Amino acid sequence: MADRVIAGRAVVEGEAEGEALVTNEALSFWGGYDFHTGDIIDKHHPLAGVRAARRILAVPFSKGSSTTTAVLLEAVRAGTAPAAIVTTGPDAFFALASIVADVMYGKSFPVISLEPADFASLRTGMHLKIEPDGRIHQSLVPNP
Fold first, then answer.
1. Annotated catalytic residue 65
2. 110 contacts: CB under 8 Å, gap ≥ 6
């Protein structure tokens, strides 16, 4: 597959590059994400047991409340947060985590909102490169 560019909306600007980890089910970070390891630990989630740390996590939206922000903040501090989060709409909890992480730790991560059809084009294992303006370059293999 040749490089394809998707026009996303940067809810929180930033750059990131890496392997996509994609799910069509919302994820609760409270009790669903181990900030010590970056593993998804919700036994009922399709990605249970998969490490999301330093990958580009594509999840339609968060499930839960402000605890999502708290868990993501701890993951940023521990170096086990996703490199970026891609959603199907602006998610206040993901955005707040990134903004507060920047203030507290000088580390933020991009949060990008996509139209549902563009989100549906993402596949686990794809190489994604996120631009500050929200554009996402997708390819099946990393660039050399």
1. yes
2. 10, 12, 13, 14, 15, 16, 84, 85, 98, 130, 132
